[in-house]
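Table S2 (text version). Query chain:
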Amino acid sequence: MFIMKKSNSISQLARLRSPKFRQTGSNCTLSFWYYNYGESVGAAEMQLLVDGLKQPTVLWRTYYGEGNQWLKAVIQLGRLSYPFQLSLDKISLGFYDGVSAIDDITFENCALPPPALSCEGPNRFWCRGTKACIDSLLVCDLVDNCGDGSDEDNCNPDLQCNFENGLCNWEQDIEDDFDWIRIQGPTPTLNTGPLKDHTTGTARGHYLYLESSEPRQYEDKAVLLSPVFNPSGNRNCIFRFHYHMFGKQVYKLSVFQRTLSNTKGWLLWYKFGNQGNRWFRQTLYIGSSKPFQILVKGTVGDGFTGDIGLDDMSFLGCTLYNGNLPTISTTTSGTSVPVTLPMNNCTEKEFVCRASGHCIQMIQKCDFRPDCSDSSDESACVMEVCNFEDKNKCGWYQPALEQMSGNYSIHTTNIFKWELGRGANLYPGQEKHCPLIDHTTCTEEGWYLFSDSSNGEFGHTADIATPVISLTGPRCKIVFWNHMNGSTIGSLEVLCKTGNRTSKLWTQSGSQGPQWNRAEVFLGIRSSFQVVFRAKRGVSYMGDVAVDDIAFEGCSPLLIPGRPCTAEEFTCANKFCIPKDNLCDFVNDCADNSDENPTI
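Corresponding structure-token output:
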């Protein structure tokens, strides 16, 4: 079918109407091939005309000539429960010069599910009227999958939201950069965002969208908060939602789960980049031993064609919690959270062992040797070996962040800082400058520590430090693995901080290749100090610094034995015993340098 020129009137309109259809199933799509070529060929659009609605819904449009070629258009119709027609309109303003044509119009998956004689199994639902047998995951998801509405009967409205009457019991986060917007029809910017909602499939329906135009800036975030739910046990709470990510500069949509109200939680799912002009369904299985909340976060890209849509959000197998999530207060690492101490006679300069009340010298706290029977003197210290699995930072902390408010996990979103990461959470292309696998497990599921250079600016630094280490032995060293790959890698430094004085022990700059590299830093005998890893950001986001498997080796201080030194040992001037093989080896093994005395 093609358009022939009939007149030179200022405004010309050619219209092609479809037959009238009674309804469609929830997975219905329409596709066709079109040709629109010429210097003044004009625009064309496909409209949906629904009985009972005066306003047509634009499903597809093209504004200008697209070359001497046939192109395919795919339109998501979805579930339409009312009779409708399609109208293809060709508009020419002024002089028409070109060829417009359409061919191979196809409807796919548009029928309702067929009736079934039986519908057995724990994961199946038998529709009451149509007798169709559907997946139980489709029940109470705000979509009439049966065709008779029976899969949407007797649903808890507190567990569903189609945004037709507001946000339901979802809330806008007050700690993010801007808010999600409720809208009907297309978003204000061309070539991005939905043209219609998912619930009704028309311009009459409402949905939420993230506006990426000015004054929004790159990586601005809008967060939507769910109500709080009861503990869900073994992943039997199911979250369903529909999202739309269309536009050349669409950035990221993420879903987080949290059990503390002043944290951003942990990542459950994300999608990155342009996914095409259609709504997608996503299902997440959620398990929690504590009351929890879901956060849906949209992130702005680097341009105005980056609108993101949300619609038809529902929960299955979940129950609402009658209360609020607890908060966690951040305390400077290395200071003790108040505890009830056992009866003791210790002075202020001594440490009280938590189980026995036994007193030890304060310098014996955090020295890599448990001097208390319950090891409580080493409990608030850096761990001897840390692989960051189970998202455990092993006592390492970021002093700059902990000086901020208790809500720092949201306030510091765009700050250059150390974070836990893993390959499974990377977005496409990020593996070029961030590790795809960790060093411990050599898998995408393994965790590591990295400084995210998509935040901050050139020259910014991020420090992560140990709590104060009281004392180390003469052969103490720190061994770690680092990953520095990318075109704009900055640097990584290992520092020793004693009071207000900081000294550099090791440094490395620039890209070191796409692999984990081993590093070793000698510490020796030191007292009342901290080890600091400092990452310095390069000129762009293409350069994340990562570390993994940090180990303190041979760091326990020397112990004076309750016996004379053996024939194989050397007696230091301070009564320590060391192996004679350690004499005159340029290492102060005795801690008083008597093993290196030239008169030995």
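Notes on Table S2: The mean pLDDT is 87. Helices lie at 399-402, 408-411.
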